[in-house]
Amino acid sequence: MKLLNLVKQISPGGRIAIALAVGLIVGSLGTVAFQAYNPKDVIAEGPKESVSAIFGRIVNQNKMISASQDYTFVEKAVDKNRLFDIVDIPFTENSFWYRYTGTIEATVDLSDASLVKKNETTLVISLPEPVLSNKPNMDLSGVLEERNNLLNPIHVSDVDELQRDCIAMSNNEAEKNGLLKAAKEATVCNLQQMYDIALGENEYKVEVEWIDNAEVDKK
């Protein structure tokens, strides 16, 4: 009762001043407690990796398949015996249909990479140009139909020649469809992701200087 009577005797302005003072004290204590609070499940962020350490891991990957393209060719081969390689000999024609299936991969040799420039915002890496490697799928490739001829039988060399033609056509198609360009773009994207994951997104912008493979071989 005495405390209540004492409060009643304080003017409205005095009550407001006391309330503000109490609020400041409570707020200060709360701030100190929050700063001192260190929950066990919060782990301090460790030091970031260095640019050179990440680059070393990139080089150690050796090869990167940056793009690939499947292909299937169905071609007919026809052969005739010729007299002095001038005139076709009648009744000596043979033919066969052949399906050739495989995958072309555009590969970048990371073991020849060099870190040629580094500043606060950009990393420039030199790399050899992507190269195409042709991997046939012999489980799906083979002769579909043949018309043999006793006077001019089909030879293994005929099949080999057609296979070489299919490989050349598939390589030409891959270059025409921009597989090498797509491989370059994918390589830059992959390298950028590696640095973003290790150092933080947009810490560095990765650029690539492409070197002709003939120049790389001279080193």
Itemize the secondary structure elements and their pairings:
Blueprint: H1 2-9, H2 12-36, H3 51-60, E1 63-79, E2 82-83, E3 87-88, E4 94-109, E5 114-118, E6 122-128, E7 131-136, E8 142-147, H4 156-176, H5 179-199, E9 205-211, H6 213-218
Parallel strand pairs: 6-9
Antiparallel strand pairs: 1-4, 2-3, 4-7, 4-8, 5-6
Q: Overview of this structure, please?
A:
Helix content is 42%, strand content 31%. It is α+β, with helices and mostly antiparallel strands.
Order of helices and strands: HHHEEEEEEEEHHEH
Provide the gyration radius in Å: 37 Å
**Helix-and-strand structural type:** alpha+beta
Shape: elongated
Total number of beta strands:
9
Write a concise synopsis of the structure shown.
This protein has 219 residues and is an alpha+beta fold. It has helices at 2-9, 12-36, 51-60, 156-176, 179-199, 213-218, and strands at residues 63-79, 82-83, 87-88, 94-109, 114-118, 122-128, 131-136, 142-147, 205-211.
Give descriptors for this structure.
219 residues, alpha+beta, 6 helices, 9 strands, elongated
